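Case study 2.
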Amino acid sequence: MINLLTASSMNAISRSGIFIKFRKVSFTTLWRFFTPGFLTRKRPKMPTNLTSSNAVSFTSSGEMMNRYLVALQIQTSQPLAVTEAAVKRDAERILKTMGWTRAALSLVLTDDEGIRPVHKEFLNDDSPTDVISFSQLEGEGPQPLWEGLVFLGDLVISAETASREAARRGHSLRYELCFYICHGLLHFEGFDDRTPALRRRMFRIQEAVLAAAGIRK
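Prediction:
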């Protein structure tokens, strides 16, 4: 597990063009944009084809082990250069590295035309973006649960933007997608990027998290 505060003191990296929007919404609003799957009017039971274990695991001392559920929906017009299993596996690695022990995350990979109406609906911006975060950890009251795990929220990512940015920066699509996933999870934890200094801080942390998770460019 990486210490996020220590990571924030590392050298800044040069990166621009990532403006992740952060807002809590209900599934009754978000479900309209993505058909069927896990974004529905009522949260369904978790699919059985997830890469995570369906059973609760325990250590020899009886303590619960780490457990993650990553529900992934892919709605892109072009095939991805990464597999569904690889995306789920990387998301779980990032969750573990960031210190989450029992967490559920829903993730949508779409293209620019898929993310554009979501961007317009929730942020009044009729243009594509890279990733939009919908946290379920805001506000008071009990922590939302999904299959007994802390439900963090939803990330909607444009794989088309990720592919374009990866080519421009000379690294893999896998790394760019992981960079977006990590950034969205940091928003869930209360980080923001409203100023250049805050954005650089988040990018430093993302670089450190991905390095610690063994995810290379």
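Residues 4-42+64-212 form a domain with the Collagenase (Catalytic Domain) fold (CATH 3.40.390.30).
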